Amino acid sequence: MVNVAVFAVSAHVAGLPSAREIAPVLPFAAALAGRELARPLTSVAFARRVVLPVLGVVLAGYLVGLGLEISKPSVPPQASQLTSWLERHHLGTGLSGYWEANVVTLTSGGRAAVRLVETDGGRVIQRGSNLNAAWYDPARSSADFVVLFPGIDGFPGFTSRKEVLATFGKPARTYHVGRYTILYWHKNLLTDLRRPPS
Fold first, then answer.
1. I need a surface site. Which of 9, 118, 173, 194 has the fewest CB within 10 A?
2. CA–CA separation, 195 vs 70, rounded Å?
3. Using alpha carbons only, what angle is made at residue 159 by residues 109 and 17, rounded to the nearest 5 degrees?
4. CB within 8 Å of 44: residues ≥ 6 apart
5. 183 φ, ψ (degrees, to nearest 5)
């Protein structure tokens, strides 16, 4: 409870999607609390008469919730429509914003690779840090498409069509896959990609 309260008032919370930052801590905190509090609580007669039945009701509630959750049909992974389309069409490697790049590359196992980019000064640039430099080196890698996506609540998309056209010129083809727009060129886009200042 203390961990959740401290997290909730911290600067790390930027909305509901931030819950993923604290979620791994909660089961470990619950296990630690159980280990530390089980013996003192069960040694008192009042605790045996009141606390244990309450914990039994809470456990039953969790089991009902689990049953309801697993009875619902599963939701396809985020960007699964885009991922399967890119895998079927073998376009190669592309560029996009943070969410599309990470999700597509991960869920496809790297078969459809999309690299992170952002915009700055009206142009598309290589995203800053924690990336493999070879992904953006036109001598070692190539990229021939850009994925545009308007985003969803809580997750911004990559909608910088104007900056994409200013950086790479007019695309040879444009595809529409659900809410995604894929702009395709017959060239290596990495040669026109601006590197961020050091």
1. 9
2. 46
3. 65
4. none
5. -100, 125
